[in-house]
Amino acid sequence: MPKVGMEPIRREALIQATIAEIGAKGTLDITVSAIARRAGVSPALAHHYFGGKEQLFLSTMRYILGVYGADVRAALRGTEAPQARLEALVLAGFAPEHFRREVVSAWMNFYALALSSSAAARLLSVYQRRLRANLRHALRPLVADPAAAAERIAAVIDGLYLREGLAPRETEHRHAADLAMTHIQLELKGAAQ
Amino acid sequence: MPKVGMEPIRREALIQATIAEIGAKGTLDITVSAIARRAGVSPALAHHYFGGKEQLFLSTMRYILGVYGADVRAALRGTEAPQARLEALVLAGFAPEHFRREVVSAWMNFYALALSSSAAARLLSVYQRRLRANLRHALRPLVADPAAAAERIAAVIDGLYLREGLAPRETEHRHAADLAMTHIQLELKGAAQ
DNA sequence: TTTTTTATTGACTGACCAGTCAATCAATAA
DNA sequence: TTATTGATTGACTGGTCAGTCAATAAAAAA
């Protein structure tokens, strides 16, 4: 039953199906057929809308990065005090939905993909730059060397995410956020301006 | 020209070829044929010695983890002072050879693989546990909460490696080690026992 | 109503690949 | 010398997959 205006619906469904399939298989080694089946359409339609597998992956990556970015912006909205902004940044990054198996899968595989796809590398570096810029901005009134502190905090966030994301499920994710917040306290105490 | 005693030579050659191929393609999506070609043997021989692709990957992972472990042990040998041991741990982790493109590739892909292969996950968690144990041990005489500090330092190390490993080449890798060392200074200053 | 556009797919192709197996060849042991 | 064992591969199989294309069907526009 072909209807007009299906394109955005199908694109969204195919991206969601891609995320689900990556999560289920834990790999980017998944087939367009499986994704299409999950989305309830034929493999040919996936090619029709995305042009190919690689572009479907990139759109999926853009989607996930977009969700993360929106979360961060929402967390920062209305938050003025630098300390509160730091906390918001950390908490947004460690929100439970980022630890859903399929999301972790997508992140890990995108890290790997960034080594072979310059488009993927560019997307990832946009996210990294934005996180660091946000951190620097919040740190500027608080520490002597905001750039270096931002670098370290970003590393702690990424490192803790890596660890928690890879850890066997059932683990407590508050842990990561707490560790990161303690680290920030250390930065503030150790290098107050 | 078949000779006796070839097995260890071929195994090593195939593992090296696997690393090289992962580095070249940036993916685990590589063929046994390509690996075997690189090692100068037939694909059948790779199956003969390793039994299959997955086992070849796991052996390669074990090899890389083993090199890392040996580097760390070498760096710690003869180093007694806790502070020096911390520094040795960091410097070993950020040694230039770990930033060779093919090694970074292997790490990133192993992270992703750990999500779908419990054998890979186990190997990775052995490495992670060992790093944390080493850090805790060195931190015990220096800070009030060695476990938490070790967790944070390990996160910084992993996070900085992720960032530096993914960053476009030409970047300066001293940077990562410096940032990590500064972080350690913060930990010691902020929570001296 | 006719034409055009959008959505959709079945069927196909060309290519590739992991893993198997029987056979070959050389060194070595009996 | 003969039998055995380890090293090695060519040839093959069963299966898979990305991407193409022409055709169909339903809306929408003319």
Topology:
Two copies of one chain form a homodimer.
Chain A: H1 7-25, H2 32-39, H3 43-50, H4 53-76, H5 82-93, H6 101-113, H7 118-139, H8 146-166, H9 174-190
Helix pairs in contact in A: 1-2, 1-4, 1-6, 2-3, 4-5, 4-7, 5-7, 5-9, 7-8, 8-9
Chain A binds a DNA duplex (30 and 30 nucleotides) through helix 3.
Give the count of helical stretches of chain A.
9
Radius of gyration of chain A: 19 Å
- How many β-strand stretches of chain A? 0
Order of helices and strands of chain A: HHHHHHHHH
Stretches of chain A where pLDDT is under 50 for at least 5 consecutive residues are none
* Main interface: chain pair and counts: A-B, 44 and 45 residues
Question: Would you kindly provide a written description of the structure presented here, covering whatever features stand out?
Answer:
2 copies of one chain form a homodimer. Chain A is mainly alpha-helical and 193 residues long. Helix content of chain A is 75%, strand content 0%. The first copy, chain A, is built from 9 helices and no strands. Chain A has helices spanning 7-25, 32-39, 43-50, 53-76, 82-93, 101-113, 118-139, 146-166, 174-190. In chain A, helix 1 (7-25) crosses helix 4 (53-76) and helix 7 (118-139) packs across helix 8. Chain A is elongated and about 60 Å long. Chain A starts with 6 loop residues before the first helix and ends with a helix. The relative contact order of chain A is 0.11. At the A-B interface, helix 6, helix 7, helix 8 and helix 9 of A face helix 6, helix 7, helix 8 and helix 9 of B. The structure holds a DNA duplex (30 and 30 nucleotides).
